[in-house]
Amino acid sequence: MADSKRAWSHPLVDIPYTEAQRDELARLERDIRVQLAEKPKRLAHSLSVARCAEWMASIYGADPFEARCSGILHDWCKAWTNDRQIDEAAALGIEMGAPLEKVQPLLHGIIAAKILPERYPELPGSVWQAISRHTTGAADMSALDMVLFVADGIEPLRKPSPGIEEVRAMAGSSPLDEVFKTSFADGIVYVIETRRYLYEGTIDIYNALIEKETA
Questions:
Q1: Which residue among 15, 25, 44, 117 has its CA within the 20 to 30 Å range from the CA of 194?
Q2: Domain tally for the chain?
Q3: Which residue range forms the structural domain that includes residue 54?
């Protein structure tokens, strides 16, 4: 029997990009197709995150061009093995306050934000901050940071879960900081339910967000 549930999707937006911006987006998409050629699902996810982030940015006052660039590039290092990510993080001097092996799933965005500016010097620092924070979050997230974080979790190719469906229902209608906090909390629940290592920095960020609410 066919599933009666309709797949979630967000509206498509027509952003009046400049010719230079369109050329840049085309270049980034060509590059990510090469980078993730051996990971077609990851490639599809990246392009879907880019469009979802672009849509959210158009609603919440972030820059749609920066949002789409961030989405295209956010999983650049997912082409690498886990061991390579750990080795690269160590070589770059990335400190997480925990053994890198335990926080390996969080490393790819931080690594990408450190290595890609040399390849794409034309992109602003806001793009690299958003990419760096899309796995860990932060207590002082910018609008672009929150847009990418949320889009990564709810893009249409993601398999639905109660938490994801809740965030999808909020996106575009609820305030962005509320959408982000709900997505962030859902991520913590997922880590606990799947018995994964919970990064101590996540607890600090969560507590800081709660203190802001009650201040």
A1: 44
A2: 1
A3: 19-214
